[in-house]
Amino acid sequence: MITCFIRYEIDPFRKDDFATYARNWGQAIPRCGADLIGYFGPHEGSATTAYGVYNIGSLAAYEAYRARLAADPLGRENYEFARRERFILKEDRIFLRNVSLPHGKE
Predict the structure, then answer these.
(1) Which residue has the higher pLDDT, 105 or 51?
(2) Which segments does the entry list as coiled coil (predicted)?
């Protein structure tokens, strides 16, 4: 299992648009095969930093998932929404694996 962390730089005056974008992914991402942890938008501190986080089985599974997401009607609509409205200024993606498992209980 790997976890994809997406760091967004967003327009601070378009936080509501990013929230709409995030809610749309909340429907499309699980339907297309990834385990969505969530999208996180600004609350305190930086008004321009947001994150999307989800788990996927492998990089090969990620490639298949991305193809399904691109073919999904809501996925296509959401990509177009972000492109048209330009509230995302920058997007960085990194894949990490959880190296602290199993977590102990105290």
Answers:
(1) 51
(2) none
> What residues contact residue 43 under an 8 Å CB cut-off, 6+ apart?
none
Q: How many CB atoms lie within 10 A of CB 46?
A: 11
Tens digits of residue pLDDT in 29-70: 999 999 999 999 999 999 999 999 999 999 999 999 999 999
If you average pLDDT over every residue of the chain, what do you get? 96
Could you tell me how many residues make up the chain?
Answer: 106
User: Cβ distance 51 to 18 under 8 Å?
Assistant: no
Closest CA to 29 of 10, 12, 9, 52: 52
CA 62, CA 65: separation in Å to the nearest integer?
5
Residue 77 in tokens? 């609509």
Measured between alpha carbons, how far is 79 from 69 in angstroms, rounded to an integer? 10
For residue 103, the SS3 value is coil
